[in-house]
Every structure is written in structure tokens, then in C-alpha cells.
Write a structure and sequence with these properties.
With about 250 residues, the protein is an alpha/beta fold. The chain has a single domain, classed as TIM Barrel. Helices cover about 40% and strands about 15% of the residues. The protein contains ten helices and eight strands. The chain has an eight-stranded parallel sheet with strand order 3-2-1-8-7-6-5-4. Helix 5 links the parallel strand 4 and strand 5 (about 130-135). Helix 1 (about 25-35) runs parallel beside helix 2 (about 55-65) and helix 8 crosses helix 9 (about 210-220). The longest helix has 14 residues, at about 150-160. The radius of gyration is 18 Å and the shape is globular.
Amino acid sequence: MRAFNFLDKFDSIDADTMVIDKGLGPEYVEDFLRVNGDYFNFIKYGWGTSILYDDSIIKQKNELYDSYGIKSYTGGTLFELANSKNSVDEFFSEADRLGFSAVEISDGSTVIPADVRSEFIGMAKDLGFFTLSEIGKKNPEKDHEYSTGDRISLINADLDSGSDMVIIEGRESGKNIGIYDDKGNVRLDDLKEISGSVDGDRIMWEAPNKNQQIDLILNLGNDVNIGNVNTNDVISLETLRRGLRGDTLGKV
């Protein structure tokens, strides 16, 4: 029985939340899920970290995540590394063997031609993975070369290619990248232009910082999809979504 269950009106929010696993042990994951497992549905093994683990650990963790209906995937960096070594087929095969249920197609640190990117998205879909793709560059100078219109075109191209969801790059810092200025504030004009031009249900906004999460919720609703959430902030974000903190109380 959930505490304070007279507040039933807070029990259903149709939103996707993606959390970063930066190196959690299986026992920690099991305990973590007991408290947080109902409040997120994607877990990303950050960057290329999963290459550092024994495969038995990855399988054990993925089984735990799957038991809560949480889709697991490696960071896009590992996919880009595989592509640079002409090993994408092996990457997909290994992801399947290890129990990952999703993959991320990105070119944040490398360059992948648009037609090849589209082909990779199709390959991932055909193999049965939930397919995410990411728009944006890790290097702020290169990311700034994209206009808001460019981002919209890239998002729609990925969706047309078959991406189940498109991630808007925000990195772990959430500063000077994507829709964020150098202080980590949301550029609201950019946010509104992008959100008004694409299918919001299929967009994941990387927003690692509280102020960004608040702005996204207040401007796009408490069912906005939010990613790059720290494991320590899952419950914090859920209280923002449900109006259980002063920042959103009475506003959502």
C-alpha cells in the first residue's frame, strides 16, 4: 500500500524518463529499483562504460531493469566507436546477447552521412530494438553550427527513418549545448520553436539540472520526456512532475 494514497490524482503521468547509469553495481541496482523503479523507463549505460564490465554483470543488471519494464541501452558513444571500426553488425549482436532492449544511434562525436544514419536506424528497428537517435554534437562549437531549423529538420528526418524517439543533446553538464545557454538556462524561444514543429511524444530532452527540468515541465507539461537524469534525482524529478515541490505546486 502506498503512503498517503488519498492523493490518487497524482498516480498517472504518461511521461518517459531516462536515467544515466554511470557504473552501478547489481546489488545497488536492485535496491535502487525498489524505490525508484516505478518512476523511469529508460536506463542509459553512460558513454562507453559498458565495455569495462564483465558481461555477467551487464546481463544481471539488464535482467533487473527489464523486470521493472525499463529499457536499457548503451550510450551513443559506444555505437559511434563501433561504427568507426566498421563493426556495427557486431555491436548490434553483442547488445542483443547482453540483454539490451534498446540502442542509440548518434554522431555526436563523429560524422555519419545522413543516408548511412538512416540505414543504421532501419537496421536497429529490423533487429527488434527500441531505437533512439540523438541530435546534436558533443563539442559546443560544432553544436552551435546547427540552427533551430536545422535541428527540426534532423529530428523529423530521424523520425521518418524509423526512430522510436529522438533525443535532444544536453550532455551531462546541460550547459552551452542544444537548447541551453552557457549558464545552463533554457533558451525558451528555441524550446518553443522545436516543440511546436515536431511530435513531442517522441522527443526526449536531455535535462540534467533541476532548473531545466522545471522549465520543461512548466512550458511543455508534466508529461514532457526528460533524459540524462542522475540516479539521485529520479524521485526529485517525479515530485516536480506531480506538483509536490514548491517549484511546480499548483502549476501542473
